From TrEMBL:
It comes from Cereibacter sphaeroides (strain ATCC 17023 / DSM 158 / JCM 6121 / CCUG 31486 / LMG 2827 / NBRC 12203 / NCIMB 8253 / ATH 2.4.1.) (Rhodobacter sphaeroides). The keyword Oxidoreductase applies. Pfam families: ADH_N, ADH_zinc_N. NCBIfam families: quinone_pig3 (TIGR02824). It comes from the Bacteria. Residues 16-326 form the Enoyl reductase (ER) domain. One of its GO terms (molecular function) is oxidoreductase activity, acting on NAD(P)H. This is NADPH/quinone reductase-related Zn-dependent oxidoreductase. The lineage of its organism: Bacteria, Pseudomonadati, Pseudomonadota, Alphaproteobacteria, Rhodobacterales.
Length: 328
């Protein structure tokens, strides 16, 4: 495959709001040892992209400064040491950065085949959410069949994936969302109870059910002490983001008396090896769920790459349900 020297991309001109995203022409990256080059068809839009744009989430050393943590497309070139992938194969992949461009490089072990029955558009919605949800719900959170699971932001990309995965694992699923439309979407995906946080107290709802065995939270702030109250004895809280803030006062006596576990993680800074292990798990444990329709990407909207700023504005407006994708 003949490759161009330059490509279209969206760069961050300076830290700020969506308006700082601007089209640019940059060199096509060259895959290094163990890497593949993907001709991007679609790129997923995620909250960490907005944090990076705002100057609050720097790329790891050696990663592209361009935003974009997941993409789908075709393998355009392979670096030394790559044996699994061939030029022309369709893949979706977790990226260290650089997805908002015609071409992106990533470790070959972070790429996955497009699940059977899915389009490239749908496949672009899976890597970031599946890696995040699998590692935090199934592995770190240890969710088991029959347990009560609560996910905040149930209508988000992470939330819609978490609801479906937890339901497929046999858990009883509860979700919070900010409107009846979003609550209805959560129920349709497998939540037995969707809680409109503007009208109901999720703590009261979960305590009436015996408490949550596992909570996945990306809100933080005032939700932290409320999550502790909503947990069952020996329950677990997994924190993956802090949309409401990182600092709060918490009485740890309750954590100790009820033997609670509070943990959390971020995906991007983890080692290539850790992400490769997640990829293997996802291909063997999650992709079969996708193939049989138990887990499907929920797509809110699509924007051409030139309208990346509009895509970010929609995401930060929080009116979307599911994932937003950029078309290259």
């Amino acid at each position: 495959m003949s490759l161009p020297e330059t490509m279209r991309a969206i760069e961050i001109s300076r830290p700020g709001g969506p308006e700082v995203l601007r089209p640019a022409t940059v060199p096509v990256p060259v895959p290094g040892h163990g890497q593949i080059l993907i001709r991007v068809a679609y790129a997923g839009v995620n909250r960490p992209d907005a944090l990076q744009r705002a100057g609050a989430y720097a790329p790891p050393p050696g990663a592209s400064p361009l935003p974009g943590l997941e993409a789908s497309g075709t393998v355009a070139a392979v670096g030394p040491g790559v044996t699994r992938w061939r030029v022309g194969e369709e893949v979706c992949a977790l990226l260290p950065g650089g997805g908002y461009a015609d071409y992106a490089v990533t470790p070959a072990d972070h790429a996955l085949p497009v699940p059977s029955g899915l389009t490239l558009r749908e496949a672009a919605c899976l890597p970031e959410t599946c890696f995040t949800v699998w590692s935090n719900v199934a592995l770190r959170g240890g969710l088991r069949a029959g347990e009560r699971f609560l996910v905040h932001g149930g209508s988000s990309g992470i939330g819609t994936t978490a609801i479906q995965l937890a339901a497929a694992l046999g858990a009883r699923v509860f979700a919070t969302a900010g409107s009846e439309e979003k609550c209805a979407a959560c129920r349709a995906l497998g939540a037995e109870r969707a809680i409109n946080y503007r009208e109901e107290d999720f703590v009261a709802v979960l305590k009436a059910e015996g408490g949550a065995d596992l909570i996945l939270d990306m809100v933080g702030g005032s939700y932290l002490p409320r999550n502790v109250k909503a947990l069952a004895t020996e329950g677990r809280l997994v924190q993956i983001a802090f949309l409401e803030g990182t600092k709060v006062e918490l009485n740890f006596a309750e954590v100790m008396m009820r033997r609670l576990t509070i943990t959390g993680s971020t995906l991007r800074p983890q080692s290539d090896l850790a992400k490769a292990r997640y990829a293997r798990d996802i291909e063997t444990q999650v992709w079969p769920l996708v193939a049989r329709g138990a887990l499907r990407p929920v797509i809110d909207s699509e924007f051409p790459i030139e309208q990346a700023a509009e895509a970010h504005a929609r995401m930060e407006g929080s009116s979307h349900i599911g994932k937003i994708v950029l078309k290259l």
